[in-house]
């Protein structure tokens, strides 16, 4: 049975977002083009950023995607501290939720990145 293997986030500035995600996740892209950049996050699984068709993307359009990064529960606060030193925009500081410790930051376009414990 096929399973999802491409997770695509729309961005307005591909170079800025490539730098942001490369630094945030400490990963280099495995494919780069002028409007699409892909990062292999697991064998056969890609996280990609794309500015779409430039005529259809406006910086005024709010981004609503949420990317999830699941880490061991004891690592959530350490990831937060590391990312804060990188200057990310914090949307929610670490707090306890029904599923465990979590926090949320935003990329330059407003796409959300939530860190939470592994289920």
Output the radius of gyration. 15 Å
| Poorly predicted runs of 5 or more residues | none
Number of helices: 2
Distance between the termini: 23 Å
Largest sheet: 4 strands, mixed
The fraction of residues in strands falls at 35-45%
- Please state the average pLDDT score: 91
Name the structural class.
alpha/beta
| Widest sheet: strand ordering | 1-4-3-2
Query: What overall geometry do the principal axes of the alpha carbons give?
Result: globular
Oligomeric state of shown chains: single chain
Provide the helix percentage.
10-25%
Series of H and E elements: EHEEEEHEEE
Strand elements, count: 8
Topology, element by element:
Layout: E1 6-10, H1 14-25, E2 31-32, E3 36-42, E4 45-50, E5 66-71, H2 76-85, E6 89-97, E7 100-106, E8 112-117
Parallel strand pairs: 1-4, 5-8
Antiparallel strand pairs: 2-3, 3-4, 6-7, 7-8
Q: Can you offer a commentary on this structure?
A:
The protein has 119 residues and is α/β, with parallel strands linked by helices. The chain is 18% helix and 40% strand. The chain is built from two helices and eight strands; from the N terminus they run E-H-E-E-E-E-H-E-E-E. Strands 1-4-3-2 form a four-stranded mixed β-sheet. Strand 3 and strand 4 form a beta hairpin. It is globular, with a radius of gyration of 15 Å. The protein starts with 5 loop residues before the first strand and ends with a strand.
